[in-house]
Specification:
354 residues, alpha+beta, Beta Polymerase, domain 2, 2 domains
């Protein structure tokens, strides 16, 4: 079962700014992918060392450096020093359980949020994305667990369609954030399909597996809630922030992301309420089924009570009892029992107890 929070015991007792990777992945090679572009030209390449990133710091073109894998402490430290990142920023980049937030360091903005994806079995996979926005560069740091949601952004950059290559680094940062938020809708749509299927099963014939799936979805909803709610504050602050790094032309697009996040938050709240009501519905269904069983057993008991009484009276074996020597006594007793049973069934039906 997936844990709701990751252990951070690796950092216990260490001073602030100590670079320690807190994730679970640490054997894969870190990949540095660079796309450098302006309105007319674009260059795309894979770098084998951090030193190759240094020329892009002060280039007049816009540069997107994507780092896949944050477990290599020396590499992250060297890249951070190259672009003047604060020690605490590098620490947050390597802390893969960081709460979504935005911080302004004047020369750059640091944003951290969660990327969501659907796993092979339909479970929700969360991966941290750290984004650094400078005047002419954007650096993204991914843990590299499930890939990213930026293929369309790369395709738009290569094709030169739209305004993405005509605008600056701030618009590129907006496009990356927008791609992450848009993928939330994809995950929520699949989540909604699972809830709808589960609701149909719940109304039809709920089983013990049904309630287990409900609890599993409730846990997944906790991950969604933890990823989305703080993001609302991040995007809202980003839209209202008076930073020179975000141009006036880009501000309306950032505010549009906020509208999308509000929609996602509302959907998450609705799904949480639906799951809670479905759990109540399951418990009510189980209780109703138990009541139906008890009602049938009660009716059977009531029908057999007079029959048992008659059989008990004539089974006492006293020598002097009426009808013991009667030739038709046995048949008459059976007919009386049958008549009582039919009468009680008819009476229960008329009272709508059955």
């Amino acid at each position: 079962m997936r844990k709701l929070s990751k252990k951070r015991t690796k950092k216990t007792g260490l001073p602030s700014g100590t670079l320690v990777y807190t994730g679970e992945k640490g054997d894969e090679q870190v990949k540095i992918h660079v796309i450098d572009f302006d309105e007319t030209n674009i260059q795309e390449l894979e770098l084998v060392s951090v030193d190759a990133c240094i020329p892009y710091k002060d280039k007049p073109t816009v540069t997107w450096i994507n780092v896949s894998g944050v477990h290599n402490v020396p590499l992250i430290e060297k890249l951070g020093e190259c672009f003047g990142l604060h020690r605490l920023v590098m620490e947050d980049i390597m802390n893969t359980d960081q709460r979504p937030k935005m911080e302004d360091y004047e020369d750059y903005l640091y944003i951290v949020l969660k990327m969501l994806a659907s796993g092979k079995n339909g479970e929700i996979i969360t991966e941290q994305l750290s984004l650094v926005l400078g005047r002419n560069f954007v650096i993204t740091f991914q843990d590299g667990i499930a890939g990213d949601v930026f293929p369309l952004i790369r395709e738009r950059l290569r094709s030169g369609k739209g305004r993405i290559r005509k605008m600056g680094a701030d618009y590129l940062a907006y496009a990356l954030l927008d791609a992450v938020v848009d993928n939330y809708f994809v995950v929520l749509e699949k989540f909604g399909d699972k809830i709808e299927s589960l609701e149909t099963e719940l109304i039809g014939d709920p089983t013990q597996e049904t309630v287990q799936r409900i609890y599993q979805l409730k846990r997944e909803m906790i991950f969604l809630h933890n990823a989305v709610w703080p993001l609302r504050e991040v995007v809202s602050g980003l839209g209202k922030h008076e930073s020179t790094l975000i141009k006036e032309a880009t501000a309306p697009y950032v505010r549009d992301i906020y509208d999308h996040v509000i929609h996602i938050v509302d959907s998450v709240d609705i799904y949480r309420e639906m799951l809670s009501s479905m759990l109540d519905m399951y418990l009510s269904s189980v209780s109703n089924r138990l009541n139906e069983v008890m009602k049938v057993l009660t009716v059977i008991s009531l029908i057999f009570m007079p029959i048992t009484f008659i059989a008990g009276v004539y089974g006492m074996n006293f020598k002097y009892m009426p009808e013991l020597d009667w030739h038709y006594g046995y048949s008459a007793a059976l007919l009386v029992m049958l008549a009582i049973s039919v009468f009680m069934l008819f009476y229960f039906k008329r009272k709508k107890w059955l």
